[in-house]
Design goal:
alpha+beta; 5 helices; 21% strand; Mannose-Binding Protein A, Chain A; four-stranded antiparallel β-sheet
Length: 312
């Protein structure tokens, strides 16, 4: 699993006002993760190949002229595959991780990177091919207006944007190790868990503060951990939303984090260091009960903090 940066470079205070990034501890200051390839997409007449993931996306994001149920969306993608649409094979619905890799954290309406590469983008819900493990009658979708990852009833009609692999590229941000093949994914040392696939080290305790915090208090708590050199480390940070999202295991729930990681006291809701540019008084959040990705009002003490650092 390759963990890329978000594209956020600005910083905002809890009221949503811009502020200098230096010393803020926010995503826009730290820019953690691998840099995206530039240009991100290799564009042809009908498709754009994501050079980071090896996924082929139709440039027309509205191949289905109207919304479909989840079952109809799966069938639609299968029909494209049988027809070898645009000369490619392997058409399917993207996984939620693959679709989330398109989300931009500096744009809205649509909240995707490089929107000029595509046409007929709908600022609403698009299906992914990932079912919700907690609720069997629901599947995951991405709301293209702001970039949230939300559940939808499978009988609901959403838009469809299928993908297929580029045979010339392997791997990418949408890849997650299967649960049964990930026995060596995590390493353990004292109160730490290191994820070898992302290069991140997490506290084994998922609630070091012992209570919910507002966003600024979450950022300040991490500074306190660094002053105390918790677990001998002084480089703790509040994770950005892509780092938080990397914890998810789509096949489990309550919590929807990998069971082999051995985390303890995992809370239901977590702050990220990434601000929502839809309304900078909000920050991106992860709901670990099933994997919902949304936003929280920065001034409300309703979310928890789970510090992370880079493995050594």
């Amino acid at each position: 699993m390759v963990l890329y940066q978000t594209d956020q470079t600005g910083c905002w205070d809890a009221s949503g006002e811009p502020l200098p990034c230096s010393g803020s501890g926010q995503d826009g200051e730290l820019n953690i993760g691998r840099s995206w390839p530039e240009p991100r997409f290799k564009v042809a007449a009908d498709v754009a190949v994501d050079r980071s993931s090896g996924l082929v996306w139709p440039r027309d994001a509205g191949l289905s002229p109207f919304p479909l149920s989840w079952g109809e969306a799966l069938e639609f993608a299968s029909e494209l595959d049988q027809a070898r649409q645009f000369g490619h094979q392997g058409w399917r619905l993207p996984t939620r991780a693959e679709f989330f890799s398109l989300v931009s954290h500096v744009r809205v309406n649509p909240a995707i990177v490089a929107p000029s590469c595509f046409s007929n983008l709908f600022n609403g819900y698009y299906w992914t091919g990932t079912p919700c493990a907690r609720l069997e009658d629901q599947a995951w979708s991405v709301h293209l207006s702001g970039g949230r990852v939300v559940r939808g009833m499978k009988h609901t009609s959403f838009m469809v944007w299928p993908v297929c692999p580029d045979p010339e590229v392997e791997g990418g941000p949408g890849d997650r190790p299967d649960s049964e093949d990930a026995s060596d994914r995590f390493g353990f040392s004292r109160g730490l868990v290191t994820d070898r696939t992302t290069g991140l080290t997490w506290l084994r305790q998922g609630n070091p503060a012992g209570r919910a915090l507002n966003w600024q208090d979450a950022l300040d708590m991490v500074r306190q951990l660094n002053r105390k050199r918790l677990e001998g480390r002084g480089d703790w940070r509040l994770p950005n939303i892509r780092e938080l999202e990397s914890l998810l295991d789509d096949q489990v729930h309550s919590p929807a984090v990998h069971p082999l990681a051995g985390f303890e006291n995992v809370a239901d809701f977590y702050w990220s260091s990434t601000t929502s540019v839809w309304d900078p008084a909000y920050a991106w959040t992860l709901y670990t009960r099933d994997g919902y990705i949304g936003v929280g009002y920065k001034k409300d003490p309703e979310f928890f903090a789970w510090p992370v650092c880079t493995a050594v």
